[in-house]
Amino acid sequence: MATKAACPEMPAAQPIPRLAIPELDKCIQCGFCLQHCPTYRILGVETESPRGRIHLVEAAAQGRIPIDARFEEHMYVCLGCRACETACPSGVKFGTIIEAARAEIGPTGSPLARRLTLLALRHLMPFPGRLRLAAALLRFYQRSGLRSAAHALHLVPRRLAEMETLLPPIPKHFFVPAQEVFPAIGQRRARVGLLSGCVMSVMFADLNEATIRVLRRNGCEVVVPQAQTCCGALNLHSGEREQARAMARRNIDTFLAAGVDAIVINAAGCGSASKEYDVLFRDDPIYGAKAAQFSQRCRDVSEFLAELGLVGRLGEVRARVTYQDPCHLAHGQGIRRQPRELLRRIPGVDLVEMGGSDRCCGSAGIYNLTQPEYSRIILDEKVAAIQATGADLVVAPNPGCMLQIAGGVRARGMRVHVHHLIDLLDRAYTAADTA
Amino acid sequence: MQLADLRHRIDDLSALVHALQDVAGPDRVFTHPADLIAYEYDGCNFMAAIPDLVVSPISTDEVVGIVKVAGRHHVPLIARGSGTGLSGGAITPIGGIIVSLAKMKRILHVDLDSRTAVVEPGVINLDVTNAVQAGGYFYAPDPSSQSACSIGGNVANNSGGVHTLAFGVTTNHVLGLEMVLADGSIAQIGGRGADAPGLDLVGLVVGSEGTLGIVTKVMIRLMRRREGVLTMLGIFATIEEASQAVADIIASGIGPTSLEMIDQLTVEAVEPAVHAGLPLDAGAVLLIEVEGVREVLAPSAGTIEALCRRNGAREVRTARSEEERHLYWAARKGAFGAMGRLAPNYYLHDAVVPRSQLPAIMHQVMEIARRNGIRVANVFHAGDGNLHPLIPYDAEAPGEIARVMKASEEILAACVAVGGSISGEHGIGFEKNNYMPWIFGDADLEAQRRLKRSCDPDELMNPFKVFPTPVSCGELMVRRPPRLGASGLWI
Question: How far is the C-alpha of B93 from the C-alpha of B467, rounded, in Å?
């Protein structure tokens, strides 16, 4: 039998009081989250579970463990999908905890990857003009033959080449609205602002335009303030909180000045981040109240339309559809019913539920770039679930999910299209016009 | 004596690590502080102890290798499933190696004709039912944590569940086991039949809390769903009235499969999580389930409703859909997990009383709570007389831990005084081992100890559990980091 105290040696670390956030207190370690966590299901270790990660953050806050490479790994293997929040009986806000932890670490990856991420987060995302320019350069690289040449000459490092395969073709045109205000069609029922987003504006310009059309048809005067910027979600998820706050302030000021009834968002990730500006500024004496006001007005486009009630005639869209719950819609905002209700309103749509529709697809912001191995495993499961439904169309109302799932079904050679809910509604309205 | 003085010393940690890596490979032997600290707890929210190492085997052979290495180095082994246990059974009070069985989660064989399945210990309880329910089968023991807890953990603690009233506890559903003994040999215990020849070693191992060896396979019994099920809610003004209704329903001979009590404070915690429509203003809610051929359900429901009303129920509801039924159960099963909404810490008890004593003991529990200035939420298996007083508290508040511990002892003592016991289904672990002398005499405990030593002569298998120890769990009370005032907060 032992005789002497011999705790495993723990390295020296300083307590971090600002990390001792109240959200930590709510976790009572019941473990109900474990089986809902995609990374725990793959890896089966406590450190890759929500409960374990919360415990590690708490230990770091107490100064019991240092913020080192291992800690960073556990915080960044997390997808940030927040399925654990749905599972948690005690209502622990895991998203707030993981964001706080990442704010202590900064972006993850090799020194080069870190620098590139920081460059993008600080100097690209907040500036729509620069983002469009970067996207245009990328488009030129993709289409001019430069890409093929670079690959043929083996100029692209292997890892970068792998990442490139995840990148979809950059579309021909970007979202640059000619006007700020689009009048309602018919009787005006609401004045709404549209958060046009960063990725949405360069990768899904058509979708932003469709969103405006559908809103206008439903009696909304749509304001697209030019002064707005990216919501900052990617910055928050990568530990760049100060930059995220700066962007949030700009959006808060811009949209509150626009005098809109609601701020409508068509990307789940942006919606979730925008609805949590109140938490981001909860200790800010100046922006605290304004942020709360902003967050209260934010609505996902499906939530908003379901609340408002669709008007106008919907034509037929013949498709066997399955619906992917984006994590930041289902778990982040608790929205599951509304998109399905709207889909069922479209004549010809046959909605077939897939197994585990609210399980992450592995996109998770830039997770497919930072953790490609786990992302691939998770995506494979998702694609199999889609295949089992026999659907020819997946509705996934979030840009990250759309890109990821489209890549997944393409890689398997499946003839399945991936769309946003708004695409279908827009098509249904157009179909009614032409009928 | 202090626990730190009793901590097991590892003479040559690096040799031990290398030997374990030879067995399980470098990726499944964990040595980094961040990895170890994540195994300092289990579902028992108030104590913690950091292990020396964590290893995560994926086969019986690896478990054998680990046991042999640990024996050579004379280091304790603590088997751990999902870490949802409520008595500190999977923590390492004196250090040692955590053997995480979470990756051994294959369902190896299902035989619906003979209604058996063979599973690895890390398989999640609910996953068994999910795998066989299409054919109308299920695995009966259903702890509230069934979506998270493992079959191995259920075997260790002889877990019950919300249908124990009708179907019994884990030991009634385990037919056979494969277990690695302390010397590294593999024992096959029990078998296909209900009564295997020889000594009933399955009965010995189920509930032994990992103190005899490490279970690596479990042959379980599957059951067939009955034709119909009715789930009802009786809504009462007081917990005493509801308790009397329980006694009357049992006495009527109807034989419900489940009789669960949920009191007002519990509803307050869980309703915001589940939205099951439980009334926030009722003193107690009884969740009652009856199963059987369809023809008997309606008359049974009628009798139950009458008995509830006779005891003052203001309302009796019957779930109208499968969805509503699931919501009722989600509220019951999510109850203890929702305690974080009431306070940062909670202490969950697991005492048992003869059912006839239920109304009297509930009165005493509330009186003890009042006297000690604490709150108690009651959510429990009323039909079994298995109480689960939940004490939400804040470890940071001055004197709170002392008050909670005092009240807890008084509650346990009151249950023992009326002929009850200190544990119904959560196990003894490191939480109640020092209360064992309350219900066992010296000779009783010595008999158990001799049996344990015959399997594990060096006492390396989950030491400091079940049997009384020179120190108790109070030594391991967790302290949370100091919280900042609302004004000083930022994230």
Answer: 13
In this structure, is the dihedral angle defined by the CA atoms of residues B418, B422, B426 and B427, taken in order, positive or negative? negative
Tell me how many domains chain A contains. 3
Is it the case that residue B490 has pLDDT exceeding 50? no
Q: What is the CATH number of the domain that holds A426?
A: 3.40.50
CA distance B481 to chain A (A): 5
Q: Determine the average pLDDT of the residues in B387-405.
A: 90
B4 touches chain A (CB under 8 A): yes
What pLDDT is attached to residue A32? 97
Q: Compute how many other C-beta atoms are within 10 angstroms of the C-beta atom of residue B7.
A: 22
Residues 65 through 84 of chain A touching chain B, CB cutoff 8 Å: 65, 68, 70-71, 74
Average confidence (pLDDT) over B315-319: 96
Domains of chain B: 107-224 (3.30.465.10), 227-426 (3.40.462.10)
Residue A6 has pLDDT above 50, yes or no: no
Structure ipTM: 0.94
pLDDT (tens digit, 9 = 90+) per residue, A77-88? 999 999 999 999
Same domain, A212 and A336: no
What is the value of pTM for the model shown?
Answer: 0.94
Q: B288 — alpha (psi -120 to 50), left (phi > 0) or beta? A: beta
**A56/B491 CB distance under 8 A:** no
> Domain with A68 in it: what CATH number?
1.10.1060.10
Spatial separation of the C-alpha atoms in residues A152 and A340, rounded to whole Å: 46
Name which residue leads in pLDDT, A14 or B127: B127
Which of B30, B272, B340 shows the shortest C-beta gap to A26?
B340
User: For the segment B11-62, what is each residue's pLDDT rounded down to a tens digit?
Assistant: 999 999 999 999 999 999 999 999 999 999 999 878 889 999 999 999 999 9
Contact criterion met (CB < 8 Å) for A62 and B481: yes
Please say whether the beta carbons of B82 and A37 come within 8 A. no
Q: Mind telling me how many Å the CA of A150 is from chain B's nearest CA?
A: 37
Each residue of B208-239: pLDDT tens digit? 999 999 999 999 999 999 999 999 999 999 99
Q: List B residues 336-395 in contact with A (Cβ-Cβ < 8 A).
A: 336-341, 344-346
Put simply, whether A304 touches B (Cβ < 8 Å) is no
The conformation of residue B399, written as its DSSP 8-state character, comes to T
At B192, list the tokens. Answer: 């296909």
Residue that terminates a domain, selected from A293, A311, A329: A311
The distance of B250 to chain A (nearest Cα, Å) reads 31
Q: Does A285 touch chain B (CB under 8 A)?
A: no
Which of A53, A80, A105 is the last residue before a domain boundary? A105
Mean pLDDT computed over every residue of chain A: 92
A244 touches chain B (CB under 8 A): no
**Of the candidates A224, A232, A288, A299, the residue with the CA atom closest to the CA atom of residue A258:** A224
Instruction: Phi first, then psi: give them for residue B122, nearest 5 degrees.
Output: -85, 0
Chain pair A-B, CB pairs under 8 angstroms: 179
User: To which residue do tokens 């979730």 refer?
Assistant: A272
Distance from C-alpha of A82 to C-alpha of A249, rounded to nearest angstrom = 25
**Neighboring chain A residues of B103 at a CB cutoff of 8 Å:** 44
Q: Both A65 and A185 in a single domain?
A: no
Long-range contacts of range A273-278, CB-CB < 8 Å, 24 or more positions apart? A273/A231, A273/A232, A273/A233, A273/A236, A273/A244, A273/A328, A274/A195, A274/A231, A274/A298, A275/A332, A275/A333, A276/A95, A276/A96, A277/A248, A277/A251, A277/A252
The predicted pLDDT at position B194 comes to 73
Task: Look up residue B473 and give its amino acid.
Answer: C
Chain B residues with beta carbon closer than 8 angstroms to that of A282: 489-491
- Average pLDDT, stretch B386-404? 90
Q: At what angle do helices B60-73 and B13-24 cross, to 10 degrees?
A: 170
pLDDT score at A365? 82
Domain that includes residue A419, residue range:
313-434
